[in-house]
Specification:
arsenical resistance; Arsenate reductase ArsC; Ptyr_pPase_sf; 165 residues; alpha/beta; Rossmann fold
């Protein structure tokens, strides 16, 4: 019996750093159980170069990563999401579009590594730190038993992970 992957959409205002990191990481470590996407309310022109750099350095594929509007996922023809996770406080406070299928929602806030001032190495370290924090929480999501990922439990499970890591 084949199981459909759990579709997860990560949201951040500009879809250029945290949501991009989360999308790439979950697609890298989630196996066939998960399919990740990312989007933003005001997408930038491209992912932040440091986000792509730390992903590549960690051995994560960055091909095809791009900034996308959350409107791309709000239409009836869009992939149906099972879980929508905001990864920045700004996006969590915005009025989101209607998501077809009424997916579970959660907020996993992370500081914006793009806000870090300092040397190029300090900025790179901020992106690496954020990537590792996201990865720890994603590993907890992946480790959940199937019954915790069932539609009836998914929202509670995802929201509980906001307290982890």
């Amino acid at each position: 019996m084949t199981h459909q992957p759990l579709n997860v959409l990560f949201l951040c205002t500009h879809n250029s750093a945290r949501s991009i990191l989360a999308e790439a990481l979950l697609n890298h470590i989630g196996g066939t159980r998960f399919k990740a996407y990312s989007a933003g309310s005001q997408p930038g022109t491209a992912p932040k170069p440091l986000a792509l750099e730390v992903l590549k350095h960690a051995g994560v594929d960055t091909d095809g990563l791009r900034s996308k509007s959350w409107d791309d996922f709000a239409g009836e023809a869009s992939p149906k999401m099972d879980l929508v996770i905001t990864v920045c406080d700004n996006a969590a406070g915005e009025t989101c579009p209607y998501w077809p299928g009424q997916p579970a929602t959660a907020h996993w806030g992370y500081p914006d590594p793009s806000d870090v001032q300092g040397t190029p190495e300090q900025q790179r370290e901020a992106f690496r730190h954020t990537m590792l924090a996201i990865k720890r929480r994603l590993e907890l999501l992946i480790a959940l038993p199937p019954e915790k990922l069932a539609r009836t439990m998914l929202q509670d499970s995802a929201r509980a992970l906001a307290q982890a890591g």
